[in-house]
Each structure stands twice: as C-alpha cells, then as structure tokens.
Amino acid sequence: MDEQEHRRKVEAVFRKHDADNSGTIDGSELVTALRALNALPDGSPEAQRKFVDDLLARVEPDDDDASSLTLSEFQKLFDLGRVRAAFHAVDTDGSGNATAAEVAAMLRRLGVPGASLADAKKFIARVDTSGDGTIDLVEFERAFEFVPLASLQAVAARWAALGALPECGGGDLGSATVPVPGLRTWQTVMAGGIGGVASKSVVAPLERVRLAQQTGKAEGLGLFGLMRSIVAAEGWRGLWAGNGTACIRVFPTGAITCTSYVNLLQLTPADDEIDAMEPVYRGGAAAAAALIGQVSTYPIEVVRARVTVSGAPVMKVVREVAAEGGFKSFYGGLAPTLAAVVPFVAVQNASIDLGRHSTGHGAGGAPSYVHLWLVGAFAGCSAQTFTYPLDVLRRRLQVGALADEVARGGWVSAARGVVRREGFGSLFAGIGATYLKSVPSVATIATVCVSMNQYFAQKNKTEHEAKVMRGDHLNV
Question: Which parts of the chain span the membrane according to its record (predicted)?
Fold first, then answer.
C-alpha cells in the first residue's frame, strides 16, 4: 500500500469526524471515528472510553491534558509502519507471505492454547483476498490499517473479533502477553550462567564430600566425619576446593542450557495452560537443552573432576588427559553423564515451570520461592534416585578408575564389575550428600534464573512500551 494513499485516507476520516471543524478530534469524536472504523473494542461505554483515553495518553505521553488529537497525531495513531512491523512478526521466515504454520505459531505466542493449523486457516481466510491460503503484506495492510497503535497483540485481537476463531480453547487475545519483550540471548546467558554458579557455590562442600565418596577416597568416614577430616587437613576453604574450576564449567553449561531451553521451548506448542502434554513439551525442550549444554562443555568437567581429586595444576591435568587417548579422552564417561544429567535437567526444569504455572505464577507473575523450594526438592530427589548410579559410574570413568574395564567392554561392563566387586549399594555411594545438596541446589537455580529472567523480561517490556510511545517502529 502506498504511504501517501494511506495518509490521505486517514486525513479523510479525520476531517469527517472533526464535527466542529476545530482542527482537532476530542475524546467523544474519537469514539465516533473508531466506531465507524470498527476499531472500538466491544464492552461497556466506560470500558470503551477508558480505551480511548489510553490511546490519547499514549499518543501524547508528555501532555498533562491529553484530551484531543491534531491531524498529525491522528495520523500517528494509524501509522502504517506499526502494521508492517506486526506483519513481519507473523512472517517469521521473511518470505513475504504469512502461512498457516506461521499464523498458528503467532497465536500460540499470544496465549491461545492449542491453536492448530485449522484455526490458523480460519484466521487467514478472513483477510486472504487472493484466495491463495496465505497473507501478503498488501492484504495485511488493507485488513489492519485502521487498528490504532497497531501492535501484534492489537492486530490479533482485531483478527479474532472478525469471528475467525470461535472455538480456539478459550484464549483471550485481548489480554494476551505480547511477545515483544522476550528474552535476548545475552540475558538468558547471564541468567543461566549466574544461576549455575550460585547453585554450585552454595553446595560446593557437599559436592566435595560426594566426589570423595564416589571415587572411593572416603576411607569409611561418614558425611560429617569426612567434612571434619577435610577441614582439619585443609581448613574451611578445603570444602570449596575445585569450586573455581567447577564454576568455570558451570557458567557456560548453565548459560547454554538456559538459552537453549528458552529458544527450544518456543518451537513447541507449550503455553501457560496445564494439560497432559505440557510436561512433555517442557521436559523435551529441557532434555534437548541439557544435551546441548553438556556436550558443549564436557571436557571442562573431565578436567575439573581430576583437578579436584588430585590437586594438580589445570594445565598438567589437561596434558595428562590428552596423553591418555587424545581428544576422545576428554569425553570419557560422556554416555553415562548424558544418561544421568539429561533426564535430571528435564524433570527439574519442567517441574519448576509447571510448579509456577500450577499456582498461577506464569511467565509474568511473581513465583512463590517457598513453592519453588518444595517443587525443586521433590523433583531433584526423585531424579537423583533414578539417575544416581550412572552419576557414580561417570565420576569413576572421569578420574580413570575404570579405564581398563571400559576399554575392554564399555561402561555397561564396567558398571557390572563395580556391582560384582563392591555390591549394588556402591552405586549409591554418597547419595545422602546428594539428597542434602539437591534442595538448596535446585532452589538456588530456580530463584536466580527465574528472578533474572523475569527482571529482564519486564525491563524489555518497559523499554518497548517507551519506544512505542515515542513512535519507534520495532518488529513486535
């Protein structure tokens, strides 16, 4: 659509509804104009007046008496650039045509639960004048050029008002969360990385004890006896031995996992409604994110484990590991690690998300940290019970204790050897410290990550709204 043509149409509407020829349109005249353009939402007269007052305030944010609009301000209200930004937000592949799949994804982002391709096709049919089953920019502009202060949310609300989505499962596009703020990559990197480091530092003493028990260096001492032994020999700092190296690995792992989870979850039909498939979507995205994070940073974990046990300098350990078998040595024990870590992270992340949503604390709400502690404790302890034997095995593989058995028959054979020699209970060595560690560990991750992500999301939203009021045209 030609920009000048659109401006002439807007001016014609302005002249028609400037009933007193004052050169401005006041609130009551704007109500009449919006009603004629079918741009006034349904509701009581009070609600409609509040809608109009909000538009006036947003167009004139610095005016203490924002009760009327000049022609230029009225044209700003229907700026075509906003409509184009909304179209580009739907047309995610930049092809110039919004498809049913892209429209369905847009509906899900706006909080319409279970939006299907059939629903999207109904949406498209209302504005697809060419009949090709897609929407191009011209069709989109003609349909929504008179949506005031057009955002993706406002356009979708108008779209829904056309009657295209009568049975969509109860999604309220009028109150849906606009996906504008989102989370930028650097923000999820910081949230995941800092959350991981905080969690690891809080439970480092228990991790030191657990590692000693898993690798057979506990000398028959119990949990507290081993802690007293470490303090006596190395001082209180000894309980945090190796934590610096651990954090070097945890930060990128947490950053990659958090960022991957946020982005992968957007590719699923997951929403804020709790149903039978929601744990599958969230658990699957978390599992894939954990896989990516672990594979990306596993060599650091191998080095970290040996440094913690031997106390040797990092570079010396790196050379030793490389001398054992080259690059492959840095991935010793990866298979049991993935088998242990991936399901644990899947249960952990899905439980935190579902726990928040189940109590009404969605992405924009303030979660109960008491509830997060309870959910995290249950999820962490349950996952640890099922995956702990593999965790014990991977620790022994990392420090080279089972190198010969792994070389002969693989890690499954090595596990059988451990059980045969030391009994089945050896696969749960140190699980007491692990249970004690799970509660503060998961609670810390949940508290830090959730708080930072919510802070960033709110900050992005506030910045976006400020830009909208200034008239900047961002892809929403």
Answer: none
Question: Are 140 and 198 part of one and the same domain?
Answer: no
Cβ neighbors of 254 (< 8 A, separation 6 or more) are 192, 193, 194, 195, 196, 197, 293, 445
Return per-residue pLDDT of the chain as tens, 476 residues.
Answer: 678 888 888 888 888 888 888 888 887 888 888 877 777 776 677 777 787 887 777 776 555 555 778 888 888 888 888 888 888 888 888 888 989 888 888 877 776 655 677 778 877 887 888 888 898 998 888 888 888 887 777 777 777 766 533 333 333 333 222 233 467 889 999 999 998 899 888 888 877 776 766 665 656 666 677 778 878 888 888 788 777 767 887 899 999 999 999 888 878 877 655 667 878 888 899 899 999 998 888 888 788 777 767 777 888 888 888 888 888 888 877 876 787 788 888 878 877 777 666 655 444 445 566 776 776 677 777 777 777 777 777 677 666 666 666 667 666 777 777 788 888 888 887 777 677 777 788 888 877 887 788 788 777 766 655 554 443 433 33
* Domain that includes residue 113, residue range: 80-179
Query: Are 342 and 287 in contact, with CB atoms under 8 Å apart?
Result: yes
Phi and psi at residue 206, in whole multiples of 5°? Answer: -65, -35
d(CA 14, CA 223): 78
Q: Number of C-alpha atoms within 13 angstroms, CB side, residue 96?
A: 1
209 with 174, same domain: the answer is no
State the Cα–Cα distance between residues 48 and 30, nearest whole angstrom.
11
Q: Are residues 337 and 302 in the same domain?
A: yes
Q: Give the CA distances from residue 317 to residues 36, 300, 328, in Å, rounded to whole numbers and listed in that order.
A: 76, 11, 15
Q: Which long-range contacts (CB under 8 A, 24 or more apart) does 90-93 make?
A: 90/135, 90/140, 90/152, 91/137
End-to-end CA distance of the chain: 20
- Long-range contacts of range 323-330, CB-CB < 8 Å, 24 or more positions apart? 324/400, 324/403, 329/302, 330/298, 330/299, 330/302, 330/303
Same domain, 125 and 33: no
Q: Would you report the helix, strand and coil content of the chain in percent, each value rounded to 5?
A: 70, 0, 25
Model-level pTM greater than 0.90? no
Same domain, 271 and 155: no
- Find the helix or strand (DSSP H, E) in which 37 lies: none
Same domain, 432 and 396: yes
The last residue of one of the domains, among 179, 213, 239, is 179
**Tokens linked to 81:** 């650039």
| Length of the chain as a residue count | 476
